[in-house]
Design brief:
Length: about 80
């Protein structure tokens, strides 16, 4: 019975510990010569950082040339 209680206590302790850490989201467009922009999420879980990072993906049209630019973001 003591072993079961100890096991339950250990599992409960791990469930309260979250894997939150600083995570970096890198975004770059498909334009030649473009450099990556980075956003750092402070103490974020992997799932929430990934969802937020991927939500930055966008497309837009540049000037009168009607060039469509796609910005893609990935979590490092």
């Amino acid at each position: 019975m003591k072993k079961v209680l100890l096991l339950v206590a250990v599992v409960a302790a791990f469930s309260f510990v979250s894997c939150k850490k600083d995570r970096v989201c890198s975004c770059i467009s498909d334009q030649p010569g473009d450099t990556a922009n980075e956003v750092t999420y402070i103490k974020a879980s992997g799932a929430s950082a990934k969802a937020n990072c991927q939500s930055y993906k966008t497309t837009y049209t540049v000037g009168s040339t009607s060039t469509v630019v796609t910005v893609t973001c990935t979590l490092k």
